[in-house]
């Protein structure tokens, strides 16, 4: 082992996760030399408001508003970016790596959009660029995919990767709450933001799917490639039907490698209640990975929050410190050596649950079945329930069919006078 030295780092941002990183680094300080062969010193913390930040730290002399001072400091070897958003985070990361500094980030928005440029910059400057916390908070998944499971051909990565939506769906399932009431509770308890759009519309999960797919299948996938659909149309009635049929409804991120290319999507899905992901409740996350050698594996835990996310960030910092001590930085860079197409959603195949309100007259079921048959959609199950005067509710589940054929059926249904409403459409695990 080389001679011991103190590795100096700078932290950009002292928000929820940044403050968690500050606390974890202080907590780990007594054992750092035993774990890493060197001490780690947080030399500077970049903040917007010095007075506000001073209330959080023991030594306010580490606080600064001067990014250029950090960038030009030759002693600072690691930059921990936790500001979030696209700018100035993107500029800071690129400038840091061009200055020869190693970078840790939790910035999923930036990675999902500009991952290639960031990874290429790290490679060209022989820098470590780690982002374990960007996908599932405290759950290790990036490193396992890049290292522990590197000997596998990964065919599928599927997961619950947004704690807010999982909390909402859990409340709807366990307590029969409607979506609006469950969302209001999530906001009251701090699980959802005042503006929950990124969570409930599937955008947050979509960014994470882009990152996971790129790593799992060694081919670049961006957020724009990922089909996203949220949970705002899920009702307590849908969940009751799902339970009756042996399913649970979860918002899932799905990435699959097929002979035709990569599927990358986020949407609600009915999964069998016996599936391991069905038991993941409240704000917990889980990622289910299928490899040809390892088989089925699942990574489970807290997917967000101050300390779980800080755990992943500090783990990345420690990895970089070990590489610095042993002179092995830059050994694991970009793994996207393929150029696979991303399959359009219309060309994917799924099973579907559909609930509709129809006129309670003879021949309606036959008319519905004919439309589906004319569009190559095979019905696995169809039931008529909740007859009320002139109206009735039809619920059906299809066999696997291409999305475009199913959408053609929906378009025809919406033009039929005997069908009053398409209440719900949910994809079903297949």
Structural notes for this entry:
This protein is an alpha/beta fold and about 425 residues long. It folds into three domains: about 5-135 and about 305-325, NAD(P)-binding Rossmann-like Domain (Rossmann fold); about 140-300, Dihydrodipicolinate Reductase, domain 2; about 345-430, ACT domain (Alpha-Beta Plaits). About 35% of the residues lie in helices and about 30% in strands. The chain has 16 helices and 17 strands. The protein has helices at about 15-30, 30-35, 50-55, 65-70, 90-100, 110-125, 135, 140-150, 165-175, 180-190, 195-200, 205-215, 235-245, 305-325, 365-375, 405-415, and strands at about 5-10, 40-45, 65, 75-80, 100-105, 130, 155-160, 225-230, 245-260, 260-270, 285-290, 295-300, 350-360, 380-390, 390-400, 400, 420-430. Strands 7, 8, 9, 10, 11, 12, 13, 14, 15, 16 and 17 form an eleven-stranded mixed beta sheet that branches. Strands 3-2-1-4-5-6 form a six-stranded parallel beta sheet, with helices on both faces. Helix 5 (about 90-100) links the parallel strand 4 (about 75-80) and strand 5 (about 100-105). Helix 5 (about 90-100) runs parallel beside helix 6 (about 110-125) and helix 9 (about 165-175) packs across helix 10 (about 180-190). It starts with 5 loop residues before the first strand and ends with a strand. The mean pLDDT is about 95.
């Amino acid at each position: 082992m080389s001679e011991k030295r103190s590795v100096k780092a700078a932290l950009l941002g002292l928000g929820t996760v940044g403050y968690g990183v500050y606390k974890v680094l202080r907590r780990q300080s007594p054992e750092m030399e035993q774990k890493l062969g060197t001490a780690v010193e947080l030399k500077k913390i970049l903040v917007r408001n010095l007075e506000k930040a001073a209330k959080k730290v023991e030594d306010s002399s580490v606080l600064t508003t001067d990014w250029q001072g950090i960038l030009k400091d030759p002693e600072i070897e690691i930059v921990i970016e936790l500001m979030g958003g696209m700018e100035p985070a993107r500029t800071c990361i690129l400038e840091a790596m061009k200055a020869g500094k190693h970078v840790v980030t939790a910035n999923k928005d930036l990675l999902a959009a500009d991952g290639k440029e960031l990874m290429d910059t790290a490679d060209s400057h022989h820098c470590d660029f780690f982002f374990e916390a960007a996908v599932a908070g405290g759950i290790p998944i990036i490193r396992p995919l890049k290292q522990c499971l590197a000997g596998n051909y990964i065919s599928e990565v599927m997961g619950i990767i947004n704690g807010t939506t999982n909390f909402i769906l859990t409340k709807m399932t366990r307590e029969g709450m409607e979506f609006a009431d469950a969302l209001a509770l999530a906001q009251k308890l701090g699980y959802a933001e005042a503006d929950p759009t990124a969570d409930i519309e599937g955008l947050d999960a979509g960014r994470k799917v882009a990152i996971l797919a790129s790593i799992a299948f060694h081919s670049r996938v961006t957020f724009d490639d990922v089909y996203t659909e949220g949970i705002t149309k899920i009702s307590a009635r849908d969940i009751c039907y799902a339970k009756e049929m042996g399913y649970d409804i979860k918002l899932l991120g799905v990435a699959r490698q097929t002979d035709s290319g990569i599927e990358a999507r986020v949407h609600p899905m009915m999964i069998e209640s016996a599936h391991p992901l069905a038991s993941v409740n409240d704000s917990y996350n889980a990622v289910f990975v299928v490899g040809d050698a390892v088989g089925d594996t699942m990574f489970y835990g807290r997917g967000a929050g101050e300390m779980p996310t800080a755990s992943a960030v500090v783990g990345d910092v420690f990895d970089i410190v070990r590489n610095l001590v042993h002179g092995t930085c830059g050994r694991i860079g970009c793994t996207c050596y393929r150029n696979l197409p991303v399959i359009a959603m219309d060309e994917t195949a799924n099973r579907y649950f559909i609930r509709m309100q129809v006129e309670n007259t003879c021949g309606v079921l036959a008319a519905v079945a004919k439309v589906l048959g004319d569009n190559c959609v095979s019905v696995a199950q169809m039931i008529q329930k909740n007859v009320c005067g002139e109206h009735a509710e039809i619920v059906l589940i299809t066999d696997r069919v291409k999305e475009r054929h199913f959408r053609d059926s929906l378009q025809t249904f919406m033009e039929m006078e005997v069908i009053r409403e398409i209440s719900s459409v949910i994809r079903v695990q297949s």
